[in-house]
């Protein structure tokens, strides 16, 4: 799917996807960017639980499994419109239509820091190990590169507060340029 894509009409405000392995800071960054840019934050996992868009619960991973079709149908009204102005965060990205996003930010994190973050959330050892392996093999980054035009995918380290603040500043600047028509 990556590479040059068909041009689409430019929306007045951009849609931004923030993705990465669990624990890389997606939701925190999405909330900060949405607030700073007066955009709507859409946390896919939270919305799926709140709107009963899950198909099952995985006991071994201690997590809900979303019903992708239901989630995509629900999100079409939010992200599929021409107006834009949405910041989406989710730990995967290949399920979303490319046309929904103008910027895809993939957060990465040092494995030892990621381990500590996931451990502090009370994740089981198996879940921590699988997520750290996902980060080692850059699974989410590869999904993004295969699913979206390379020109809209940005990789951002998210190891500490300084990097998170820099990521926020960079995205807010990018959104400002988009909104002014110079991006």
Terminus-to-terminus distance: 23 Å
Q: What is the helical fraction, as a range of percent?
A: 40-55%
Count of alpha/pi helices? 7
| Largest sheet properties | 5 strands, parallel
Portion in beta strands? 15-25%
Task: Record the strand order, biggest sheet.
Answer: 2-5-1-6-7
Q: From N to C, what is the helix and strand string?
A: EHEHEEHEEHHHEH
- What is the radius of gyration? 16 Å
- Total strand count, please? 7
Low-confidence stretches: 1-6
Q: Would you tell me the overall average pLDDT?
A: 93
How is this structure best summarized?
It is built from 7 helices and 7 strands; from the N terminus they run βαβαββαββαααβα. The chain has helices spanning 26-37, 44-50, 68-79, 111-120, 125-136, 139-147, 161-180, and strands spanning 15-20, 40-43, 54-58, 63-66, 86-90, 103-108, 153-157.
Report on the architecture of this protein.
The chain has 183 residues and is of the alpha/beta class. The protein has seven helices and seven strands; from the N terminus they run E-H-E-H-E-E-H-E-E-H-H-H-E-H. The protein has a five-stranded parallel beta sheet with strand order 2-5-1-6-7, sandwiched between helices. Helix 1 (26-37) runs parallel beside helix 7 and helix 4 runs antiparallel to helix 5. The longest helix has 20 residues, at 161-180.
């Amino acid at each position: 799917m990556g590479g040059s894509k068909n041009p689409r009409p430019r929306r007045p405000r951009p849609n931004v996807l923030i993705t990465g392995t669990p624990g890389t800071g997606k939701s925190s960054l999405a909330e900060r960017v949405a607030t700073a840019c007066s955009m709507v934050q859409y946390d896919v996992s939270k919305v799926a639980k709140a709107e009963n868009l899950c198909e099952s619960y995985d006991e071994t991973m201690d997590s809900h499994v979303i019903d992708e079709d239901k989630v995509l149908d629900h999100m079409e009204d939010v992200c599929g419109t021409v107006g834009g102005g949405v910041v989406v965060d989710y730990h995967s990205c290949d399920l979303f239509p490319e046309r929904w996003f103008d910027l895809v930010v993939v957060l990465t994190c040092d494995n030892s820091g990621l381990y500590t973050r996931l451990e502090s959330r009370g994740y089981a050892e198996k879940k921590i190990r699988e997520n750290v392996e996902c980060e080692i093999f850059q699974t989410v980054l590869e999904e993004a590169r295969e699913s979206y035009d390379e020109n809209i995918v940005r990789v951002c380290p998210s190891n500490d507060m300084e990097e998170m603040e820099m990521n926020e500043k960079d995205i807010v600047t990018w959104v400002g340029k988009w909104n002014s028509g110079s991006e």
